[in-house]
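Lecture notes, part 5. Sequence design as translation. It can be helpful to think of inverse folding as translation between two languages: the language of shapes and the language of residues. The source text, in structure tokens, appears below.
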């Protein structure tokens, strides 16, 4: 099947009839990332599912009924932020020019006290500015962030979507009102490693691990949910220092989770790691972020990274309750391919 031109209903139907790849990681051909990625892209591709003009992908699974369902989960009103601080002590090390936020004051209390601001009748004030990559801390990967062989979400040529002027089609501003849904925490770190509460680096989380965690927590994953997967790696980094957190070895989702993402019809998935998927990736030859390549441009999945789920995990374990209202709006930055976010779990 070619990937030229716009996605069509015919493309989607043909893709849905493809034989699904195995969800067992032992079946991955570790010498053939191209074949493994292409097979999953064909099997799970959602091009045309919501029309040729779609800009939301799997966020379409969140409808008014889903938001009403989420609102009914609010009982105590307890609110937990899942965001890291946005400051210069963050995890970034300069890879591909990603730096930590630089916060600078434009006006200060010292200026006001010294009378240097020029305001009348004793008025003083403070102003500030921040400079940062949009994906340097807790964030969403938008649909214009990753391409598959030069093709963006819904079968569009990547060069027609993202130019030097930004994402002209699927810019993150289109999602400004999308991220309100039922949130589900899958604390895989606590489930699989109850003593440590965290998974070792390079641990590949499989669909079986996700399903087993949900079953152990007594929770069902349903269409339109926003899934938060806790591996525990961030808890270790907060305790021991950032080290290789940004781009180094990490637990994360196996490439085989592409099938789980597709069949559960979740709206978005976020993790507490830098790169969402297991690192190193599951190949013995050069490969980089294959699950991104399947999930974003083919499935249409928005991905969250560097979410701090530790406080939420403690609260969920204490209450034996793993569902909540999740509000995690993007900043409507016109043409952006990602966005900082302060996700709020409301219980």
């Amino acid at each position: 099947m070619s990937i030229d031109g716009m996605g069509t209903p015919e493309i989607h139907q043909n893709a849905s009839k493809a034989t699904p790849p195995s969800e067992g990681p032992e079946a991955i051909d570790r010498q053939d990332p191209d074949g493994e990625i292409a097979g999953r892209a064909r099997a799970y591709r959602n091009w045309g599912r919501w029309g040729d003009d779609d800009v939301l992908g799997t966020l379409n699974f969140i409808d008014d009924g889903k938001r009403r369902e989420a609102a009914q989960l609010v009982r105590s009103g307890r609110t937990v932020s899942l965001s890291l601080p946005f400051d210069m002590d963050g995890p970034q090390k300069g890879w591909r020019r990603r730096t930590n936020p630089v916060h600078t004051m434009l006006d200060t209390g010292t200026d006001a006290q010294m009378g240097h601001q020029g305001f009348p009748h004793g008025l003083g004030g403070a102003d500030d500015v921040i400079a940062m990559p949009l994906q340097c801390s807790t964030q969403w990967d938008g649909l214009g962030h990753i391409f598959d062989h030069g093709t963006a979400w819904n079968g569009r040529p990547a060069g027609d979507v993202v130019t030097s002027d930004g994402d002209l089609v699927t810019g993150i501003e289109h999602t400004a009102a999308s991220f309100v849904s039922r949130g589900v925490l899958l604390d895989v770190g606590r489930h699989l490693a109850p003593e440590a509460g965290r998974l070792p680096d390079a641990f590949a989380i499989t669909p079986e691990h996700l399903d087993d965690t949900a079953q152990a927590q007594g929770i069902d994953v349903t269409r339109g949910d926003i899934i938060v997967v806790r591996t525990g790696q961030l808890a270790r980094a907060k305790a021991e220092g950032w080290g290789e957190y940004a781009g180094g070895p990490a637990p994360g989702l196996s490439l085989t989770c592409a099938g789980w993402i597709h069949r559960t019809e979740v709206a978005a998935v976020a993790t507490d790691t830098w790169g969402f998927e297991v690192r190193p990736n599951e190949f013995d030859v050069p490969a980089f972020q294959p699950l991104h390549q399947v999930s974003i441009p083919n499935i249409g999945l928005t991905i969250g990274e560097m979410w701090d789920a530790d406080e939420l995990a403690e609260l969920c374990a204490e209450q034996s309750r793993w569902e909540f209202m999740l509000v995690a709006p993007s900043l409507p930055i016109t043409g952006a391919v990602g966005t900082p976010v302060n996700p709020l779990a409301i219980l």
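The translated text above is only one of many valid answers, since several sequences can fold into similar shapes. The longest strand covers residues 180-187.
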